[in-house]
Specification:
CATH architecture of the largest domain in chain A: 3-Layer(aba) Sandwich
Oligomer: heterodimer
Number of helices of chain B: 23
Largest sheet of chain A: 4 strands, parallel
Number of strands of chain A: 8
Number of domains of chain A: 2
Strand order of the largest sheet of chain A: 2-1-3-4
Helix content of chain A: 40-55%
CATH topology of one domain in chain B: Rossmann fold
Radius of gyration of chain A: 17 Å
Shape of chain A: globular
Shape of chain B: globular
Number of helices of chain A: 13
Distance between the termini of chain B: 50 Å
CATH architecture of one domain in chain B: 3-Layer(aba) Sandwich
Largest sheet of chain B: 6 strands, parallel
CATH superfamily of one domain in chain B: NagB/RpiA/CoA transferase-like
Strand content of chain A: 5-15%
Distance between the termini of chain A: 24 Å
Structural class of chain A: alpha/beta
Chain lengths: 237, 464
């Protein structure tokens, strides 16, 4: 299958290792991977801030680039939800309405693509550490993805998995983290405390944006817990 | 920046930094979650129950006109006087006029958020009436001259010690900080108030169109005393509280109790269908029902967000909301706090003044997942943001997104933006968290990740 891999803007700039891991995993599974250079961002920042016209300016060309893709795989639950769930809403009653629905139907978040679409969970990875998993809210509640990342982690050799007691938002929320920094920070502290309680060495997530927030707090507070993307864990040998 | 938003930000910053209060509230609400999940298990299927409840409310709200006509006709047939109030001001005047007609001096009240919404106590006290709240939580916050902290748990922010000190100061009596002792003190005070009150005032949880009944749910028995002892009873409720059929209560009563407080059923559930009828031995001689619009019909006209009128004020969305848990109820500055408050307050009190509540959310969706009547809460927050930006865009924010759009759509600009980011990060690090830092909103409490020299796209291009 030819997979069109959509690497979100912040992952491109800040977390290339996560994207590279996705390419390597998909290629190892004998899929052809293409990454259109013209696509930088899904348009979520203006969309979530209420600037839908500006969001369409970004999302419109993205849709056109993805029009012929056999399968679109996005390396983030949040951006995945944007394309899969919110593009049809954003382009309702516009000339792109039909295209938005078609592309949405062919779009997958990375872990869901592996576990649900391809039916692959064992990638031969080895990660001898105690880890916990943070569900990004968009992946969890907009896309309903909960079991896929756990099934994938379950097959990683040497990995000890422990759930956090509480399922809660990390407090990132895109521009929310800058508009209401103190609330966002308080939410992040709750998350970090829940993770620390598990005794895990690593917090793993499908969403690098959540990890950016969590790691930002952990680093500032000098906490020992580390963060790593799910793709990087799955790409270990 | 409007006063409302700057006040919200000041309070939010203060409260979210109060780790002790944050942990206290979280602990209380985590206990609720455990109880709720246990009670949800008593439903054959909680998800099917939510769907059925949402459909029933959809029917009620989309045919509100006919249901209200039926309700009013049935209430009137048994001698209840029904009043329509378009605004809070009208409702206050209607209620005050009844009190004047009855030459009433003192009013005993059971819990009613709609009375908070129209600031009833304040208006009545200004006219010289004595108003006493009889719900224990409401009684406590009334003694503190505070608004309820939470729509279901009004005094949940207070410790037992704080309540004991309050009772000692205001009532001159509080032997210990145990719930039993504190309740007995409140009970002794209140029993006297019931006996001397001229009018009993209640809210309403559900109004049954089919039978003309108003259903009141409570845990303390105070609403029953409020409705039974004084000669005149007044009930104030929003027009959206209508349910089509009596049998709908079979679902809604356990659902309200489970979603709201993690109870199988609330302790007392009473259906009121009229004042004292000939031959009956108790109940008020007169019953006035005031049906309040107060811009609910504007929400009704909004097809996209009409389902917000499904709300049964259970408080489930507040309980699970990470924003509410960290900033607390008073921070909102509204009658209805939490996610549902953030959704409906812009409709009830003006979008531009209250849009910040819709922005103050990470859109995590925990509220929507918890809502027993399936209000699409977090998506309505998005719609409020869209409507607010469309009617009154923030100049610099809009400009920033326009520039971002140009950069994102042109690979050369995007490449350049990343290079500039990489080159300037040592400069940013030098001023990290200080006034000069363009990212200080973030870096005051959090580190930024180091940006690697090679981006993903660089790697991909080099590899081809």
């Amino acid at each position: 299958m030819t997979v069109t891999l959509f690497i979100p803007c912040f992952m491109d700039a800040l977390y290339p290792r996560a994207g590279i891991s996705m390419v390597e995993i998909l290629e190892r599974l004998d899929h052809k991977v293409v990454c259109p250079n013209e696509i930088a961002c899904c348009g979520q920042p203006p969309f979530n801030s209420g600037y839908w016209a500006e969001a369409r300016t970004i999302a419109g060309p993205v849709l056109e680039k993805l029009a012929d893709a056999e399968a679109v795989v996005i390396g983030s639950g949040s951006c995945g939800a944007m394309v899969k769930k919110f593009y049809p809403e954003l382009f309702k009653d516009t000339p792109h309405a039909e295209l938005a629905k078609q592309v949405a139907a062919r779009t997958w978040e990375f872990s869901d693509f592996l576990a649900s679409k391809l039916g692959v969970t064992d990638l031969g990875a080895k990660f001898p550490h105690k880890v916990t998993f943070h569900d990004g809210c968009h992946g969890l509640r907009e896309l309903g993805i909960k079991s896929a990342p756990r099934a994938l982690l379950g097959k990683v050799a040497g990995l000890e998995f422990v759930e956090m007691k509480e399922e809660s938002c990390c407090g990132f929320g895109g521009t929310f983290s800058a508009k209401f920094p103190m609330i966002s920070t308080a939410m992040g502290e709750v998350k970090c405390a829940a993770a620390a309680e598990t005794g895990a060495e690593y917090i793993v997530s499908s969403d690098s944006s959540c990890l950016m927030h969590i790691q930002g707090l952990l680093s500032r507070q000098g906490k020992p817990t580390k963060t790593i993307s799910l793709a990087e864990v799955l790409n270990t040998r | 920046m409007s006063n409302f938003v700057s006040e919200f930000k000041t309070r939010a910053t203060e409260k979210s930094g109060d780790v002790r209060l944050r942990q206290f509230i979280r602990k209380a609400l985590s206990g609720y979650e455990v109880a709720r999940d246990k009670r949800k298990g008593a439903f054959q299927s909680w998800e099917s129950a939510r769907q059925a409840a949402a459909e029933t409310k959809w029917e009620a709200i989309n045919h509100l006109d006919t249901h209200l006509e039926s309700l009013v006709a049935k209430l009137g047939a048994r001698g209840t006087k029904v009043h329509w109030a378009s605004t809070g001001e009208q409702a206050r005047e209607i209620i005050a006029q009844i009190l004047r007609d009855k030459k009433a001096r003192s009013i005993i009240k059971s819990k009613a958020m709609t009375s908070e919404e129209i600031h009833l106590n304040h208006a009545l006290e200004k006219e010289g009436f004595t108003v006493v709240e009889s719900d224990l939580g409401e009684f406590i916050v009334q003694l503190r001259h505070e608004a309820p902290y939470h729509i279901v748990f009004p005094s949940m922010h207070l410790t037992r010690d704080e309540i004991r000190d309050l009772f000692q100061k205001e009532l001159g009596d509080a032997p210990s900080n145990t719930p039993e002792d504190l309740t007995m003190v409140a009970r002794r005070v209140m029993r006297q108030k019931y006996l001397t009150a001229d009018v009993g005032f209640t809210g309403g949880n559900f109004a049954i169109a089919e039978t003309g009944m108003i259903s009141i749910t409570e845990n303390e028995g105070n609403a029953r005393l409020t409705a039974a002892l004084p000669k005149t009873m007044i009930t104030l409720m929003g027009i959206e509280k209508v349910l089509p059929r009596f049998s709908d209560l079979a679902l809604f009563l356990p659902m309200l109790a489970t979603a709201g407080a993690g109870q199988p059923m609330t302790c007392y559930n009473t259906m009121y269908s009229g004042p004292r009828q000939p031959g009956e031995c108790d109940g008020p001689e007169e019953w006035h029902v005031v049906l309040l619009d107060n811009r609910r019909t504007e929400l009704l006209a909004d097809a996209e967000q009409r389902d917000a009128l499904h709300c049964i004020r259970c408080g489930a969305c507040l309980n699970v909301c990470p924003i509410f848990r960290n900033v607390g109820g008073h921070t909102y500055g509204t009658t209805y706090s939490g996610p549902v408050g953030a959704v409906i307050t812009p409709h009830l009190r003006g979008l531009q003044d209250w849009k910040h509540l819709s922005n103050a959310s990470s859109l995590c969706g925990a509220c929507t997942e918890a809502c027993p009547v399936k209000i699409d809460l977090h998506h309505h927050l998005l719609q409020n943001r869209r409507n607010a930006s469309a009617s009154q865009p923030a100049f610099f924010e809009k400009l920033a997104y326009q520039i971002f759009g140009i950069v994102a759509n042109e690979p050369k600009f995007w490449w350049l933006a990343k290079k500039i980011g990489w080159f300037t990060q040592p400069l940013q690090r030098a001023v990290k968290g200080f006034a000069l830092d363009p990212a200080k909103a973030w870096t005051k409490t959090r580190d930024l990740p180091p940006q690697p020299r090679e981006s993903f796209k660089d790697w991909w291009r080099n590899r081809q």
